[in-house]
Design a protein that fits this description.
Number of strands: 12
Distance between the termini: 112 Å
Largest sheet: 5 strands, antiparallel
Structural class: alpha+beta
Shape: elongated
Low-confidence stretches: 1-26, 83-95
Mean pLDDT: 83
Oligomer: single chain
């Protein structure tokens, strides 16, 4: 009789028996201590259309709830744009509590910026089911929680449109920051760009745009190293001091300091683009090299120069 089934049917029967034996082994290891309802809901095993089912486990019910809410958020985002998470759990090799927390923390950074998914919460789930189990082999308790979240095709397509519009704005922001790089002439522009680029790096799920954002951030930060302090004598006893980026005046707020080998009554006042340093030359000898020593320390930028008069 066995040969009447053929090798193909015999192989299929063997697979079914293997799965059955494996399942019996797993269930034999676990003992259910408590559950939220007497019977497991049908939707836990057979996911209905127009709904998302999220699942999470942890050693406490509260932590399992926290994780399943993040898992629900991931499922919503994955349904909207399959590449939004970037690396999947399996690709990331996530193991243990710390790794899970790090993974979900990175996911939260990206999705927290999206107004159209910020209202995803367990409070909007249609149903929730959990089990408290004891593993006889490891002697550890665990909580498995399942949530049923309404998510029909109309909602999905609406979120897709909103996601694409948001993602497009993020790409436009990166291009704008790249194009403005050469024209930066004030420290505040660097500070604002750093904040924007860090946000873009956290948002972009693809490596290509993340690398562009990282490179652009490096270039903005390198501007500080390209700055120089320049002084010019504009009248007897007066010197104009500015910060320069190449051939462009750069506005860097800070307190300028000045000293001299001979001048006295040194006074510093700000002007539109920098500072005016006035000084008394009565004690300076004409045949000696008289000079002003100028220093500026601001936002981690240390500049100095000497002006001979």
């Amino acid at each position: 009789m066995i040969f009447q089934y053929g090798l193909k049917n015999l192989f299929g029967l063997g697979c079914m028996l293997s799965v059955l034996i494996s399942s019996m082994s797993v269930y034999g290891e676990m003992k259910v201590l408590d559950r939220s309802s007497k019977k497991m809901p049908e939707w836990v095993l057979h996911h209905p259309e127009d709904y998302l089912v999220a699942i999470a486990s942890s050693s406490t019910l509260q932590e399992a709830q926290n994780r399943v809410e993040q898992e629900l958020l991931r499922k919503v985002m994955s349904a909207v744009a399959v590449n939004v998470v970037g690396e999947t759990v399996s690709d990331s090799g996530v193991e243990g509590d710390k790794e899970w927390d790090d993974f979900y923390s990175q996911l939260s950074v990206r999705t927290a910026q999206l107004p159209f998914v910020s209202d995803v919460s367990l409070a909007k789930c249609k149903d929730t089911y959990w089990e408290h189990s004891y593993n006889k082999v490891s002697s550890k308790d665990s909580y498995d929680i399942y949530v049923l979240y309404p998510f029909d095709s109309t909602t999905r397509h609406k979120l897709i449109r909103e996601y694409e519009a948001y993602d497009s704005r993020m790409s436009d922001s990166l291009l704008r920051l790249e194009e403005r790089l050469k024209d930066v002439d004030e420290y505040d522009s660097i500070s604002r760009a750093e904040g924007e680029l860090e946000g873009l790096m956290a948002w972009f799920p693809d490596r290509q745009r993340r690398k562009r954002a990282e490179k652009t951030l490096e270039l903005y930060r390198s501007i500080k190293a390209s700055l120089s302090l320049v002084g010019e004598i504009i009248a007897k006893g007066e010197c104009r001091v500015v910060v320069m980026r190449g051939d462009r005046i750069f506005k860097l707020p800070g307190r300028l300091k000045a000293s001299s080998n001979c001048a006295s009554q040194i006074n510093i006042r700000p002007d539109a683009n920098g500072w005016i340093v006035s000084y008394n030359m009565d004690d300076c000898l004409e045949f000696e090299e008289n000079s002003l020593n100028l220093t500026l320390n601001s936002y981690g930028v240390n500049l100095k120069t000497t002006v001979v008069f």
